């Protein structure tokens, strides 16, 4: 009897512990991918880096599931996969990789974390009312961003920085659309296999764009530093962390599994200051904290709306 109780308790702890460990992994390592992207795009075209990363990551998933003889998607499942390929990877990941070329990894991570605000705004234009808590969160987040940009006022005169802000904002908007599309067209199809197919399809799309526009350089011209960054992004960012992310979503409540949104920018800012010597002033630290508090209120409002 005692052994049965111990086994039951141990099983319960494992069922809670593994998802929490997965969430901790996501919270930390997705923050580090901003630094890997920043290092990689210093030496090669950003969209080419995103294309190679997505191709290799997608190939790993797809080959694995082919060997496992996993059923392929059917009918309308392909439509959802194609749409998400464009929104989540060709656009969101591609543009954020490009955008971080022109700004610090920490700033890129903070802007990227604002996607819940765009979800609220998109829903508003679709006829849904903005809750008071969400509106308060948006205003607080906007105030936090303004505080952060105090230290970047002179950079706004630089065309490259302006272009980076546009790219990063666009990537965040497309990620919000991707999340809404995922919720609207939720499918029983294997989410990991779907992820691999999205990456693989998006890499083909990006290759067509970059090759047609003459952006790509020869693979032999890509320095070893960028290949190391790509390897890190593929193994840690595209494979292991996405597996941990989906696993945590499947086993944890939404309010817990969304914690990574607040931790990723902190990891990117702190490590960016240590590794790359990126600026981490008092204004940036306070602004980041205010932004994340506002973001928390927006997320809380979204969860309350779902419960009604």
What can you see in these coordinates?
There is one protein chain. By secondary structure, this protein is mainly α. The protein has 12 helices and no strands. The chain has helices at 2-40, 46-67, 76-99, 105-112, 115-125, 132-148, 159-184, 191-212, 224-251, 254-257, 260-275, 282-307. α1 packs antiparallel against α9 (224-251), α2 (46-67) packs across α9 (224-251) and α4 packs antiparallel against α11. The chain is globular.
Summarize the structure.
It is built from twelve helices and no strands. It has 308 residues and is mostly helical. Mean pLDDT is 87; it is low at 1-14.
Low-pLDDT stretches: 1-14
Mean pLDDT: 87
Number of helices: 12
The tally of beta strands, per DSSP, is 0
N/C terminus separation:
43 Å
Radius of gyration: 20 Å
Label the structural class.
mainly alpha
- Return the string of H and E elements: HHHHHHHHHHHH
Largest sheet: none
Strand content: under 5%
Shape: globular
Provide the helix percentage.
over 70%
